[in-house]
Amino acid sequence: MRTRDSIVITLFLLLLGLAWVAVLASLPWWAGVPSAMAMEAAALGLPRLKARRVVSWLVFYGMLGLAGLAVSLARAMGGGAGAWFVAVLLALLGFLLKAWVETRYGLLNEAPNAPADAQAVPAAPNTAPGKTPHLRSLQWQDVPAWGGVEDRAARLASKRPCYLVNGEIRFGPPTGDFLLSGGLVVIGWAGASYAESPDGRWFLASRPENHPGCCDYLHDHLERRLYALPSWHVRGWSAEGPWLSQGREGVSYPLHQVATPEQTDDYLPLRDLWLPRRFVESLPLSRQTAHPPAGPHIATLDMRLPDAFAALFDPLESLHRPQFRLAVNGADSGLLVYGLHDAWDAAGQTLRVHAWQVDAAPTSIAAWHWTRLTGWQSIPS
Q: Which H or E run includes 352?
């Protein structure tokens, strides 16, 4: 309801602005000057009162007012090319004034996803409003984006995080997950840098485009929780934990006053790893079935999980891109697939897949087909 009301109010104010332009354009230019100038003066004065939303609209109306005044002036000058040139310059002046006011008073610095009532966040217990305790600054460290099993084991033994590449930004740096000591995994699209609190309880990583400081992935070792607060920045570590602000400037708040249940995730065990609950619940761990359009046959897929993840060259590869054991009518095929997509023919008698044998590598993937009479056969490439 609040969102709908906000849209209605915004549309009303936009229509009011267009009407404001039309009125000033129809008046003699000398009659529109006082009202346009009064609007600009109010826009320049109110930022000192911190009335940000009012200022934003006044600046917008001031720009529209100068545009309307420009049209009126062009009409008064006869409407020739020179007149319209002067009008364009006047309209451009309004736009530049709007941009200067927004930049000067920080009207564009609010985080895009920050709560609208952030200024109403209550003060921390035993902390005066607006007063931030002594904070230890963030110390960012780089971690190798590539490394073998031995390197990873050595880092984990010394309680240093390991970086597991899972993709890349086009023409940019890699993205990845972090494997922490104890089998804890921070699933995300983080860059290869991290920061830890002095007591070792908190772990922070950011997306490459948000680095440094953006609270994309904040992990609490003690409570085993993962926080995702992309519109907030960690300003530093206090004795109780991280303090955050909207953007890199502004008032700071302790984590418990900022995080919501939707931004918090606990952990579930899977073999020798601990993974965020939402990630585990998104995995296709239960058996999947693929029925043909017709006929009695049925194909089933069971996700293949290793006995242990941490010792694999890429511990999370089978989770980011699951492999499935394929069976037809309950009979195991001895094949692995990434999935089935329109694999049955229209009659429901032939199943065609791209698969590889269980004891082979995925690089040996090839075309296979199954019928009740012939069973499984490889299709020559």
A: strand 350-357
Please determine, for residue 81, whether its predicted confidence score (pLDDT) is greater than 90: no
Domain residue limits, the chain: 2-104, 132-276, 283-378
What is the average per-residue pLDDT within 165-182?
A: 81
Which pair of structure tokens corresponds to residue 36?
């346009």
Place of tokens 């023919």: 345
**For the segment 82-124, what is each residue's pLDDT rounded down to a tens digit?**
666 776 776 677 667 666 555 544 444 333 333 333 333 434 4
- Residue 7 neighbours by CB under 8 Å, 6+ apart: none
For residue 268, give both structure tokens: 């579930």
Report the Cα–Cα distance between both ends of the chain, in Å, rounded.
59
Spatial CA neighbour of 190 closest among 295, 173, 127: 173
Whole-number Å distance between alpha carbons of 40 and 17: 14
Using the CB atoms, write b or e for 150-168: b if 16+ within 10 Å: eebeebbeeeebbbbebee
What's the confidence (pLDDT) of residue 61? 64
In this prediction, residue 132 carries a pLDDT of 77
Cα–Cα separations (whole angstroms), residue 92 to 47, 124, 151, 160: 22, 46, 59, 55
Half-sphere exposure of 250 (CA within 13 A, CB side): 21
- For the stretch 194-206, pLDDT in tens is 999 999 999 999 9
